[in-house]
Structure to design on (387 residues):
């Protein structure tokens, strides 16, 4: 291939990307097209119920799953057929236990595991046929007494579900019980089996967790909502047994020696695709001033904190405090290349896409932004790249 042809191909504009965003109180799943510095709305879908929240994408089958927490009515899971244009075709809607807040695919993407916050439950579903979703199993939990923070730990509150790197276990942080519940999954089994629990610091309230692989080593990071801390664990896999988790450290969400204002709540945690960085978001901190998106003055923004992962020990080194693009970044995600981050700002009705330096892990300039939702606090709570 000639140098002139290579230069020509590199100069071609990148193809547009699709981003999906849920609006917790606006009852919509919005499809956005990212084309260079432009982020425009393609379509909106109302079939994910009254409070659309978490999104799980099966790219191999062009299927998107949306959880409806259903605080204002019944809760549900909606399956969609995705398209190159970004429009969504509704395939099925299944009523489920109240307050599903997070989900993950497992068993070669034939099953979906769901954490339920208010109903203290863990459920699994068959999604082998996305036009015919069905319940496989349900496990409900109770507390014998309220936890260290009784107003938030009056019952088990399961808040996330992620598949481990071996694809044999699902981890479910329980904010109310100060536990991370571990379930073993088998491709042939009808449901998941509870095998162990990881105790967390009393009153920490684990919200979301993420794994990082460093060579042959595996680390787990828990982002704790009530204590606004990150807990790190080493993970040791055993033949025919549940993994062992050894707690290594606990650090404030802003790094060692930092504090956050009263009312701050930990939100999302992500590990970069190259497994070298951890990024977390906080809500209610409002600690940064950034240029307003309409060009007039400044606005408040919650932070995104970036940490480098020590590939030998799993320790975290604070790299950057960056703006999330506004208030209440309830959810964010990275593209697969790790070159972009999309942030959902629930209190500001805004989705913001930032550039990201893969080498340093730092976030850079705003690439694009769009208004999603209408009215006070009706903005997006989660945003996900379609890839």
């Amino acid at each position: 291939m000639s140098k002139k042809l290579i230069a020509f191909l590199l100069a071609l504009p990148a193809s547009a990307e699709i981003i999906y965003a849920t609006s917790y109180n606006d009852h919509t799943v919005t499809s956005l097209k990212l084309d260079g510095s432009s982020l425009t709305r393609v379509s909106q879908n109302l079939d994910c119920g009254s409070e659309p929240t978490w999104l799980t994408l099966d790219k191999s089958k062009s299927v998107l799953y949306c959880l409806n927490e259903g605080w204002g009515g019944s809760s549900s899971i909606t399956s969609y057929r995705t398209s190159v244009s970004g429009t969504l075709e509704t395939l099925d809607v299944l009523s489920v236990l109240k307050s599903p807040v997070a989900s993950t695919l497992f068993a070669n993407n034939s099953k979906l595991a769901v954490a339920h916050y208010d109903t203290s439950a863990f459920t699994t579903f068959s999604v082998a046929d996305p036009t015919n979703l069905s319940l496989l199993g349900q496990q409900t939990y109770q507390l014998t007494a309220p936890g260290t923070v009784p107003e938030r730990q009056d019952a088990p509150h399961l808040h996330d579900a992620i598949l481990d790197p071996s694809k044999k276990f699902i981890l479910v942080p329980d904010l109310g019980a100060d536990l991370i519940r571990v379930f073993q999954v088998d491709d042939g089994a009808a449901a998941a089996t509870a095998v162990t629990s990881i105790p967390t610091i009393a009153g920490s309230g684990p919200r979301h967790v993420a794994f990082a692989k460093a060579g042959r080593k595996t680390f787990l990071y828990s982002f704790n909502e009530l204590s606004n801390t990150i807990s790190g664990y080493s993970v040791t896999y055993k033949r025919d047994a549940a993994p062992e988790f050894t707690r290594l450290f606990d650090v404030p969400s802003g790094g060692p020696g930092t504090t956050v204002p009263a009312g701050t709540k930990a939100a999302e945690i992500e590990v970069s695709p190259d497994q070298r960085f951890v990024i977390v978001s906080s809500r209610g901190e409002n600690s940064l001033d950034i240029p307003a998106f309409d060009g007039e003055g400044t606005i408040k923004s919650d932070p995104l904190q970036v940490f480098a992962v020590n590939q030998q020990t799993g320790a975290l080194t604070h790299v950057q405090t960056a703006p999330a693009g506004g208030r209440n970044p309830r959810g964010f995600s990275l593209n697969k290349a790790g070159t972009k981050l999309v942030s959902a700002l629930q209190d500001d009705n805004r989705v913001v896409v930032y550039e990201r330096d893969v080498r340093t892990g730092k976030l850079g300039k705003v690439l694009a932004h769009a208004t999603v939702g209408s009215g006070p606090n009706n903005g997006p709570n989660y945003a996900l790249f379609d890839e």
Observations:
- The chain has one helix and 30 strands.
